[in-house]
Amino acid sequence: MNEQLLTQHFRGQYGEPMMTVQNGDPWVHVLTHLVGLALLVLGTIVVVRLLVSHYKPIPQDPLDVAKMRYAKGEITKEELASIRKELKV
Fold first, then answer.
1. Which conformational region is residue 22 in: left (phi greater than 0), alpha (psi within -120 to 50 degrees), or beta?
2. 25 Ramachandran zone, left/alpha/beta (phi>0; psi -120 to 50)
3. With contact defined as beta carbons under 8 Å apart, do 18 and 11 qualify?
4. Of 34, 59, 60, 75, which residue is the least packed, with the fewest Cβ within 10 Å?
5. Percent of the chain with pLDDT over 90
6. How far is CA 38 from its chain centroid?
7. What is the number of other CB atoms lying within 10 angstroms of the CB of residue 64?
8. How far apart (Å, rounded) are the C-alpha atoms in residues 7 and 36?
9. Do 62 and 87 form a contact (C-beta atoms < 8 A)?
10. Which of 48, 89, 50, 43 is nearest to 66 (CA)?
11. pLDDT confidence of 52, banded at 50, 70, 90?
12. What is the dihedral of CA 16, 18, 23, 24, to 10 degrees?
């Protein structure tokens, strides 16, 4: 009796199996995989762009460091001139 109730539960109104992902339209299955793949690719692109945007090369030249500090307002124009004089540029 329970087996009969279970089989009726998983069958549609006319006794045919209800449509699921396993036995349904194959295009639904393909589209589901394509959407998943698209989300995976977009997620990867977002992560890579975030990592690249936070990458800032470290200046190697002391004069470049002084120029960046001047641009940020950390040192005055006179201090930058003094640094240039000390570096003999």
1. alpha
2. beta
3. yes
4. 60
5. 44
6. 12
7. 11
8. 32
9. yes
10. 89
11. confident
12. 110
Give the Cα separation of 86 and 64 in Å (integer): 14
Bridge partners (DSSP) of residue 11 are 17
Distance CA 4, CA 22 (A): 22
d(CA 85, CA 79): 10
Taking only the tens place, the pLDDT of each residue in 3-46 is 555 555 555 555 555 555 555 677 888 888 999 999 999 999 99
Sign of the CA dihedral with 26 first, then 28, 31, and 36 last:
negative
Q: Which two tokens stand for residue 84?
A: 């240039």
Q: How many residues does the chain have?
A: 89
In the numeric block, the tokens 């998983």 are attached to 10
